[in-house]
Amino acid sequence: MAAALKVTQTRSAIGSKPKQRGTLRALGLGRIGRSNVLPDRPEIRGMIARVPHMVTVEETD
User: Fold this and answer.
1) Strand order in the sheet with 55-60
2) Are 9 and 34 in contact (CB under 8 A)?
3) Which residue in 25, 31, 37, 61 is a FRET match for 15, CA 20 to 30 A apart?
4) The pTM is what?
5) Beta bridge partners of 37
């Protein structure tokens, strides 16, 4: 099985920049506590790098 990343939103997007809110939506997030499992690809990691203070990331199999 390919490596994956479980991304969980840990901080509210209220008061954040529009681009940060858009990045959270692109990751399938948008509410504190919401999680999404995504493929471990460079473009996904790049999006996560735009909002590192708002999400936690766990590597999964």
Assistant:
1) 35-39, 4-9, 55-60
2) yes
3) 37
4) 0.91
5) 6
CA distance 29 to 23: 9
Q: How far apart are the first and last CA of the chain?
A: 6
Please give the Cα distance from 57 to 5 (Å, whole number).
6
| 3-state secondary structure (DSSP) of residue 56 | strand
Q: What are phi and psi of 20, to 5 degrees?
A: -70, -40
Give the residue from 15, 13, 29, 23 showing the smallest Cα distance to 45. 23
Amino acid at 12: S
